[in-house]
Amino acid sequence: MRIIPLSIPIDEDYAPIHTYQVCRVMEQNQNNWLHTNWILTEGAQRVFIELKFTLRDCNSLPGGVGTCKETFNMAMKESRYIKIDTIAADESFTELDLGDRVMKLNTEVRDLGPLTHKGFYLAFQDLGACIALVSVRVFYKRCPFLVKSLAEFQDTIPGSEASQLVEVVGRCVNNSLPLYEPPRMHCSTEGEWLVPIGKCVCQTGFEEINGSCQVCKVGFYRSLLESLACSKCPPHSMARQAGSTACSCEDGYYKIDSDPPNMACTRPPSAPRNAISNVNETSVFLEWSVPMETGGRKDVRYNILCRRVLPDGRGLEECGPNVRFLPRRVGLTNTSVMVADLQSHTNYSFLLEAVNGVSELAKDHAKQYVSLNVTTNQAAPSPVSVVRKGLTGKSSIALSWAEPDRPNGIILEYEIKYFEKEQDSSYTIIKSKETEMEVEGLKPSSVYIFQVRARTSAGYGAFSRRFEFQTSPYCEYTRQRYCTLTVMRSCAPPFRRCGYSKAKQDPEEEKMHFHNGHIKFPGVRTYIDPLTYEDPNQAVHEFAQEIDVSFISIERIIGAGEFGEVCSGPLRLPGKREIQVAIKTLKAGYTEQQRRDFLWEASIMGQFNHPNIIRLEGVVTKSKPVMIITEYMENGSLDTFLKKNDAQFTVIQLVGMLRGIASGMRYLSDMGYVHRDLAARNILVNSNLVCKVSDFGLSRVLEDDPEAAYTTRGGKIPIRWTAPEAIAYRKFTSASDVWSYGIVMWEVMSYGERPYWEMSNQDVIKAVEESYRLPGPMDCPEALYHLMMDCWQRERSNRPKFDEIVCLLDKLIRNPRTHLLINQCHI
Ligand code: ACK
């Protein structure tokens, strides 16, 4: 190609620029070519070509445009020429610009790839333009050598495609290694490192400082790849060399595999302290304090070695397998143990040893014991182990049994307890001096449970296990089964029990009947009003056990009571297993009257012992704050619990809850106690859905001084739950409790709905007076609503008694389809 320099262009600094020019705009059929030399690719598969050029505006040419062009072509050749692109100028120059000698320089970049040969030619084709090519720069991009996250990535040539990423695996620098996976980076066509994956970390014994791995100094260690830096050795350990991956324990100190590397080395504990024993017949309760020195560990456990002192100084013999340790003999976590079934009148020596996680390693560490010598007392007989059935009739069973294995004295008599199977809340006890007897007055074709225990001058032994025997069938079977209540009425006058039958006894045998845990005969146990005590403190201590505050830990606040916060936490009474309790506290600054009122509840609650009455564990009165400790009910109060679990229970589950409440109320009414504030909010629910009656605070005040109750606490009278006669003239009786129970039934069946909704108390009194009654809750079985309505009879003597309610609910639970007729449970 012939190159025609048109003029010598200059740059901004007026320096001449050498260019290749062509300008044959007036001549026809131009085809001028400019070729480069062969350009080596150096392995690049994609190259960039940057052109700088000027181009003359055809319109500005004197004498018309003619064949003038304003573009030129760029081509490349590996094996043959291929057009890369037609290049046009962003800016073209005119005559005027020429005169001013101002360059209107254009820059265009094109990329080229994939290249397959070692090199190529470039060529520029002019078809009749006026061009000056100032520069052609051919280059390719690389991702440069890089050290990142302790990994080296080599200088890398990008791939041939425009958006291709080339994955490069890095090499970990000295003394480092990949964490989880080898480190990787990606080289883009723009020569940039992108998307880092994985990383290297210094190997253990080294730490990263300024991008390289430096050895840990003496006294320091690094054991985990995940930790950043070397750490100082924990107490009682050392690292004698640089680059340590762990520290070794000083003499006399140890570590077990499960100890974390940053934990101090530890040693075995010293002996337990302040060991004491408490003998109860043939049981010994041992208690001690934690060792002075735990060895720096939290896993201190205790082992007991029990040895019997042989008579006449013949030495010691290990206690045999018959001795029981509660909760166990070795590995005790608490500082007490109950040792049971020792021999009576025998000397024992106990060694108490404290151990911890490193005791096994410290072979040469002399074991440290504390020793206790104990003499057991007279003991009750061991349980009767065999009870046999003899002659059996339709209403009698003959029994015989063997003397206990260890009578521990002369047997004075035996007690035989029996009840109809699955009716264990009501049982009968008879006594016999012989090892046999005939039990009479039983129901035909019925299964009975029998248990026997022996008594010596040391007291009763434990009952035998349960033995199950059945009576023979009865010819008038159907009538008997039809309604046990009819039979009961005729044969067992003092016992108002559904399905209960009385045994006829030998006059020799003394007989007592038990009704849900308390003796019913010869006299019915009744509730004693704490008011009958001159000194209220005496009443509290008569019925409530004083608990040392050190046995209680308050863990959280669960609510607010009338006198202070209600909390919960564990109670650890010596010799008893730990239980969760609720703790009612009396807030500071109380008056003497408030203290009495607060403890009053405990004096009442302490008299009750029934599975459906909240159990009092004891009181704390000797330290402050004064507390009432009761069993803990995981699900809190019934009304809140039901609201939280709307529509979550089956009818049978709800009836089961109601049955429990009725059973608790039956017990209270049998005790002669009128609750006066029975409502779902005063029922507590445990984790097994067992409902228990609570809140024994209000009744006393009303009983004591009705006027005062109405003036000072009038707002608290639970109008919606209270029977009309109790509202009108304070006639509080078990029958008014039954009315309240009907309201509780309604609350339960409607999952905690407020009785009479938002009606005012005045409107409720008026509506009830005018015979309005709450409607049946949604999905409430007809039979249950009937029962509620019966509880709300205006005439209180027409309301059912609690034992009838229990009986009816039992029937409903046994056969949900039963249409309940109260008459079936009348006595
Ligand atoms: O509805 P709750 O959770 O149940 O809130 C009240 C709160 O304390 C104030 O009385 C709860 N509460 C009371 N006695 C006990 C208990 N024995 N067990 C569990 N929670 C209790 C009650």
TrEMBL record:
Reaction(s) the record says it catalyses: L-tyrosyl-[protein] + ATP = O-phospho-L-tyrosyl-[protein] + ADP + H(+)
Signal peptide: none
Keywords recorded for this protein, A-Z: ATP-binding, Cell membrane, Glycoprotein, Kinase, Membrane, Nucleotide-binding, Phosphoprotein, Receptor, Repeat, Signal, Transferase, Transmembrane, Transmembrane helix, Tyrosine-protein kinase
Name this polypeptide is given: receptor protein-tyrosine kinase
Intracellular or extracellular location(s): Cell membrane
Biological process, per Gene Ontology: axon guidance
GO molecular function: ATP binding; transmembrane-ephrin receptor activity
Residue numbers binding ATP: 584
Presence of keyword Metal-binding: no
Source taxon at top rank: Eukaryota
Record-linked CDD domains: FN3, PTKc_EphR_A
Stretches that traverse the bilayer: none
Record organism: Sparus aurata (Gilthead sea bream)
Domain spans labelled Fibronectin type-III: 268-379, 380-474
Gene Ontology terms: cellular component: dendrite; plasma membrane
Coiled coil: none
Enzyme Commission designation: 2.7.10.1
Membrane topology of the entry: Single-pass type I membrane protein
PANTHER family assigned to the protein according to its UniProt record, in alphabetical order: EPH RECEPTOR A5, EPHRIN TYPE-A RECEPTOR 5
Residues annotated as domain Protein kinase: 552-822
Sequence ranges assigned to domain Eph LBD in this UniProt record: 1-148
